[in-house]
Every structure is written in C-alpha cells, then in structure tokens.
Amino acid sequence: MKKVVLTLVVLALAATMALAEQWLDTDVEGLIESAPSKEDYPDASAVFLKIQETAEVAEDGSVVTMRNKLIRILTLRGRERYSNQSFLFNEELSALSLVKGVTVTKMGRVKEVEEDAINDVTPAFLKGASMYANVLEKVISFQAVGSGATMELQLRENHDPAVDGSYSGIEYMGAEDPVFTASFTIRYPEGAKAPSSVGYTGSLDTTTTIAKAAELGEIVYSVSSVPALIEEEYMPPATELYPTVIYSSYTSWDQPAAFFAGEFFPHVETGGEIASRAAELTRGLSSNEDKTRALFLDVATEVRNVHMPLGIGGYAPNDAEQVLENKYADTRDKAVLLTSMLRAAGIDAFPALVAGSPDARFTESVPTLKQFTRILVAIPDGGSYGFLDPFMDDVSYGFVRWGRGNTALVVRDDGSSELVRIPSFRASENHARKSMVIAMDSDGNADVRASCELTGYFDRKARRDLKDATPSEAQKLFDTAANVVSTGASDADHSHSDLTNLTEPVTVLQNIEAEGFAVRQGDMMIVRLPPFPHSFASTGLYPSLAERRYAFEFPCEFGSDIVLDLSLPDGYEVTWLPEDVTLITPDAVFKLTCESYEDQRTVVWTRSITINERSISVDSYGEFKENYDTLSSPKNRLILLKKI
C-alpha cells in the first residue's frame, strides 16, 4: 500500500512542477516532499515553504508582478486562515489573474481550483459606493485543504504604465506563520538607472536578516527562517514587524509630488455648486477660523466616509462637485471636496499625504506615494501648517487622529512639495477627567454621582458608543455601567452633552443607586472603591503579560484623572487608607493620593495616569508593568471604616 501512495505522490508532484510557469530556480517537488509535519511545528497552523515575488518593469513603465506561494497546512486553523485567498485590485489600472492554484493533498492527489471558485466581488467596505466600482476583490477558494495538504498559488498582475512612467512599491516578506524562505526581485529595463530601494528586517526576530544582491538590471532581496507573527495583545501592526522592501524609480520627492499634483488639482473646483455651498455655510462669519470650522464640519458630517486605502483606487479623485452631490467619499474625495470648499471661501488649502497608523515607519530615502495611506488637508499657518482630517466625523473639531508622529507630504498646485513632521500627541490632548461623588449610609448603601469630561481619543470613544445608540441601547449601556459600581446597582438617571455638536467636548453624567455598596462585618465596614463605570472613559488596555515579544502600544499618548469623594456614613470613622504612590518613568507618570478630612467627614481618593510615550518598548515594559500593577493593586482601592 505504501508503494502505491508513494507513486501517487510522485506523479502529482511531477504534474505540479510541469505547470509551475512562474517559479524561478525552485524545486517545488522537493519542497513538498520534505515539508514538515505538525509535530515539527506544534505551535504553527501552517508553514510557508516558499514565497517568491517578482516585479518586471518594461520600457514603457508597465509592470508585471508575479506572486508565488507554497503553503503546507498543518491544522484546521491553517485551513480556515489560508484556504480562501483574497486580493484587491483596480480593474481600470491592472489585470489580476490566477496562473495556477492547486492543492496537493496529504495522499498526493492534486486538486485544482475550480473556475466557479474564482470570483471578482465588490469589497465589503465599498457596498453602496458605486463611484468606486473599479476596485474589486478577487477571492480564490482552494478545495481539499486539510491537515498535511500543500497549497500552491501563482498570481500574475499586469499594471498599466503610470502617467509619468514611474514604478514603486512596498513588499512584505513575512506571514502569521513561519516562512522558510522568501524573496522579492525587481527587474528593470537594461540601461535604466537602478531604483532606490531599502530592506528592513522588521521586529519579528533579531536573527532574521534580509540580504540584497544586485546586478545589472536586477535587484533581489531574500530572507530565510522568518518566525511566525505570534499574536500578542496591544502589539504593533504587522506592517511594522514583517521584513519589508520599499523601492521606487523616483529620485526625489519632487517627482511623486508632481505626479500627485497632476492627478489631484484638476478636480479641485471653486465655482458653481461648490461656491454656492461654501457661501451658504460661511454667511455672516468674518474670521477664517470660523469659516474653516463651518466648512470642515459640513464635509466631515454630511459626506459619508468610505474606508478605501489610498492608492488602490488610484490617486485621482472625482470632481469636487460630484463628491458634493454623491454625499460619500474616500480619502481622496473628502480631501478634494474640503480643499475646494476652503479655497472657494478664500482660504489656502493643500492636500497632505500621511501614513495611517501612528508613528508608522517613514523612509525618506525612497520617494514613493505607496508609503501613505490617507490624505489630510493642510492649511498654511505662519510658516507652518495646521492639519484637518475630514474623515473625523465622530470627535470634536480639530482632532487629528491619523498621521500623528508621522511625516506628511504637503503638495502644492505647481507640483512643489514639502515634507512636514506632524508631532505626536501631547498627553493633554487625549484626556479623561472623571469624578465620583459617593454618599454612604450606615447600612453600606450609597448614592453615586459619576461624571466625566472627555477630549480627543476618549471624546471619540464616547461618541461612537452613544451618538447613534437607540434609546434602549443607551439605557442598556447605562444599566451596565451602574453594575460596575456594585452588584445590583441601578441607574437613577443620566445625561450627556449634545453628541452631534463637534465644537464641544463630551460630558457625561450618571446618578446611580448602589445598594450593598460596602460590606459590614461586625464593627467594621469594608469599602472597595469601584472603577469609573463607563469604559469609554478609559483605554481598556492593561499590561497583563509577564513578558513580551513586541512593544506594548497604547492607541495614543493620554492622561486619565479620577477623583472619588466619599462621604462617611454616620457612626463610622476611618481606620485604614491606601498609602500615597508616585511612580515616574520617561514613558509614564503614575500618582495616587488618599486623604481623610475628619471635620468634613469625607475621604478624597485621587489617581492620575499620564502616558507620555504610546509605545512601550520591550526593554521598558518590565518596569512599566510593575508600576502599573503597583498603582492598580486592590489594596489601593480599599478603605476600612469602624464604628465610633
């Protein structure tokens, strides 16, 4: 029986090799035959036996990109993760085709991807946005993908030449599971100048190296033994961890800026409906600041956001009037509409391209628009710029979430440009000021008045939770909050600021009736101070892991302060209070104080957390976690009372 199975495997592998049009110097048969088993990689769901990608540039600037993957599936999770492959493409700019898709089963049978298992569909994020119908998602479903099977995928994408003949890209050479070897090859026309390029090893493993080999007309980057991307709470994005290659035929930032200017500014319009709308919104306003606010709020809140990554739809927006009419827009279209509206009102404005994630890696030595994922609007301000993000429809006016800590490319009409650093957040820009006034009776029950004022990140969290909630959904949220204070507590009443008003920060007030707030034991009463009841007033992140592979990342730099004012019940006095704590590191400041005022029969407990660096490095994490744990210790929320 073993001889029969072996024969089937050999025949299947021979067929696989014969059809492998795109593989270069690769023994696919040998890789499959020697592939590891689950026992070899007990923590992996699959292993990538080889990733091989090639970008071939023609004389006219057209590019053929070939992507080959050979994946050994080890577990059911591996099948769920990889059996359906999906790829975005723009059918007006490129053609994406499956060259080969087969599964070699554990028994050696070859199962080709069937024709009806290859589908071009509208991506979920573009539902109801027919203006972007040129962007599609190719979904390829592999059959017979079980433990021990090997998937072979070969894709080919033909890119039309760019208007200026340029080419560039960013390639990631890692995966969620281990990668044996990966390579990326750039082939450019004979006699042409080699593109600027750089390779980063990423942060997956300090022993992973990325090797560069160059000869006339070709650059090859390769890596080997890339470890799996192990999921870890509050970790950096995968794009910052994978081995990465960035390349570009541009030699200076003026060139991609000139290309972008040619794509963007022909669609800026300041007459017609744009002029009428701008005049209507700014009527009676005298200052540019007031006009800017009015125009921004209209674009941000009245035009629906379409979350399509910059570049996949090209760089040319639709005409500003069309965007105004359609009332939905991606980052290009929101930027062109806001730029047009501001200019119609006599206010200078320019597009500014930024990377989406905070503190994303930016490589100034390789000029390419591929490093940017969204467009802000830059307004000149005394030799510098103020920035607005028209996607921010759920936070107080002026808040810029994406792009902080990154470099922006500000592009002018004539194609000139400027690289401008957008500072990281100051902790004070994202602040949660919270208070709880607690009036206790001698039975241990309490009336609690919880209130907060939120800015920046916390403002946005609260609006997202509350702004569009139905009355029943909102009531459930406040009932849940009451139960945070004590089991069986109930919402007496609640209120909040006008969440549709983006010119004011969010404030929330709740009165809670907390029966059984404290526990009586003989002559003693045990009071455990509760956390603030609303999750939107905190980040919700806690450093629970003892050790980390990757940095611990908060969403932003922030400050969080809470004051609990506890009125003592009649007949009781304080016998024990938490000790004051002050812990200071370059990353964070933690403070706790607790004071008793006998004449006023009150205890005032305060806690302050200030995070000055959103990313806590692996080296700093141990001290950071120790300080966080010290501040959060249950004894620091415990107050003991005794009968007088």
Secondary structure layout:
Elements (H helix, E strand, L loop, with lengths): L1 H17 L9 H6 L12 E12 L5 E11 L2 H7 L1 E7 L3 E11 L5 E3 L5 E4 L13 E7 L8 E10 L8 E5 L6 E9 L8 E5 L9 E6 L2 E9 L17 E5 L5 H11 L7 H11 L5 H15 L1 E2 L14 H7 L1 E2 L1 H14 L5 E5 L19 E8 L2 E5 L18 E5 L5 E5 L9 E10 L5 E9 L2 H10 L4 H15 L4 E7 L9 E9 L4 E3 L2 E5 L23 E2 L4 E10 L4 E5 L4 E4 L3 E10 L4 E10 L3 E2 L1 H15 L5 E6 L1
Parallel strand pairs: 1-10, 15-16, 22-29
Antiparallel strand pairs: 1-2, 2-8, 3-7, 4-5, 4-8, 6-7, 9-14, 10-13, 11-14, 12-13, 17-18, 17-20, 18-19, 20-21, 22-23, 23-25, 24-25, 26-27, 27-35, 28-34, 29-33, 30-35, 31-32, 32-33
The CATH level-2 architecture of the largest domain is identified as: Sandwich
Q: Describe the global form.
A: globular
What structural category arises from helix and sheet content? alpha+beta
Please state roughly what percent of the residues sit in beta strands, choosing from under 5%, 5-15%, 15-25%, 25-35%, 35-45% or over 45%.
35-45%
CATH topology-level fold name of the largest domain:
Immunoglobulin-like
Into which percent range does the helicity of residues fall? 10-25%
Number of domains: 3
N-end to C-end Cα span: 88 Å
Arrangement of strands in the largest sheet: 5-4-8-2-1-10-13-12
Structural notes for this entry:
This protein is of the alpha+beta class and 644 residues long. The chain folds into 3 domains: 2-249, Immunoglobulin-like; 255-424, C8orf32 fold (Roll); 428-643, Jelly Rolls, CATH 2.60.120. Helices cover 20% and strands 35% of the residues. The protein has an 8-stranded mixed β-sheet. Strands 24-25-23-22-29-33-32-31 form an 8-stranded mixed β-sheet. It has a 5-stranded antiparallel β-sheet with strand order 19-18-17-20-21. Strand 15 (304-305), helix 7 and strand 16 form a beta-alpha-beta unit. Helix 5 packs across helix 8 (331-344), helix 6 runs antiparallel to helix 8 and helix 7 crosses helix 8 (331-344). It is globular, with a radius of gyration of 29 Å. Residues 1-20 have low confidence and may be disordered.
